[in-house]
Design a protein that fits this description.
The protein is of the alpha+beta class. It has one helix and three strands; from the N terminus they run αβββ. The chain is rod-shaped.
């Protein structure tokens, strides 16, 4: 008599279980890579914004530029459509408010991400 050919129900269930586990692991790896890329871009954008604010504070009140965009060497490491914005407004007679932001859109994402910091720079003697 010839042995029965084919797979038993237990073998089929075990293989389906293993394929399911592999699929879950694959999805986890994909999601993790998206989070890592987003986190990396946020860190780069924060460095750009922080460096710009530190440079503006170091140059002083009188040297504050007008509002607009600015360039930074780290911009090349962000997605290609990333933009920077510098906004300088009068807070009062001797203080200006400076806001710096970086906006980008990660690959495969429909929403844009923004990192923004704001500070006050006084003409002399600190804030009143």
């Amino acid at each position: 008599m010839l042995p029965a050919r084919g797979f038993t129900l237990v073998e089929v269930l075990v293989s389906i279980f293993l394929v399911g586990i592999m699929f879950v692991i694959f999805q986890s790896v994909l999601n993790t890579s998206v989070f890592v890329r987003t986190s990396k871009n946020q860190g780069i954008a924060l460095s750009i914004v922080r460096n710009k604010l530190e440079g503006l504070r170091a140059s002083g009140y009188a040297a504050l530029p007008s509002s607009g965009s600015f360039s930074d060497t780290l911009m090349s490491t962000l997605p290609p459509a990333a933009t920077t914005t510098l906004t300088v407004t009068a807070y009062n007679a001797k203080v200006k408010q400076v806001a710096v932001s970086v906006v980008w859109r990660d690959a495969g994402s429909t929403a844009s991400s923004t990192v923004s910091l704001t500070t006050l720079i006084a003409q002399t003697g600190g804030l009143p």
